[in-house]
Protein: Glyoxylate/hydroxypyruvate reductase A
Organism: Roseateles subflavus
Amino acid sequence: MALLLCGGWRLDQPEGRAEQQRWLAALEQALPGEEWILQSPADGAAAGRIDVAVVANPPPGSLQGLPALGLIQSLWAGVDRLLLDGTVPQEPPLCRMVDPAMNEAMVQTALWATLALHRGFFQCQRQQREALWRQPPQLRAAEWQVLVLGQGELGGRVGRALAGLGYAVTGWSRRPRPSEALQGRQGLHGADGLAQGLAAADTVINLLPLTDETRGFLDARRLAAFKRGASLINLARGAHLDEAALLAALDSGQVGHAVLDVFQQEPLPAPHPFWRHERVTVLPHTAAQTDPRSAAEVVAANVRAWRRGAPLLHRVERSQGY
Ligand code: NDP
């Protein structure tokens, strides 16, 4: 049997080809002796040998005509684009990436942004442009309420790390969490829980997956439910956020500052007002990247599990969208 490695890399450009080769090298090391087919099989015989597709936002149609395909393994944590692609076969299990290196990076980004917001360091940056010497108030971490939307692999880790620094952390998820899983954090769910969490938080961190239920989640109504002047950190997907509503909320003072890693359109177009807004911090979708070295080990574990009929890691519940 053979494995297909297929991604949305710009293969007409040297960076795209280098990225594909970086993945191939890591995967060959983690799964020695396998046949790898890149992007698409050359003929019907090659297509018939493919039992596993390892994908990174593959071009639509890439997974059609593979009669032996039994497992689709995403190299990315979010599978929203794959689930929207009507050409992706529905029968094979779909697994997403949970990469230790990416988890670590996401925690670092969330800690940095929360610390900077809590301690007023973004304000100091603005003041520097005007040579303004003014010390922001210094609150204890326990006096700073953080609401983490999503309590999965990433949201759970971010919440635990912030709680470890003493922040008052609340996590919001779709289903109630048993108290032992919360480890000192407050757990909320449902619409009432959300209203309670948004009204209390000084900083809201979005780590929800993008699904039918969460698309456009951070809209004008939800931003209006924030505590006045609270900050937003969006580390999940641009389509969660109504960007015009955020700009209005920033300009009215309803939202104090936004740290944004993801956008409706990426790269963020040069004329976009976020680039020049003094209370927006723009990151170029760099909060947490998958590291081929550690991610290849996760792929290898799943390929081996699938071939011996063992349970798969991080299987997506397609009906739920994550
Ligand atoms: P998980 O699937 O592990 O966790 C998802 C969490 O969201 C769960 O707690 C789930 O609740 C909750 N959730 C899902 N739907 C709803 C809903 N409708 N209402 C309330 N809660 C909901 O995902 P990860 O933590 O691994 O990743 C989250 C997202 O982060 C990814 O989908 C991706 O979009 C984004 N991401 C961004 C990166 C970046 O660089 N900016 C890098 C990697 C990921 P429950 O626990 O009840 O199921």
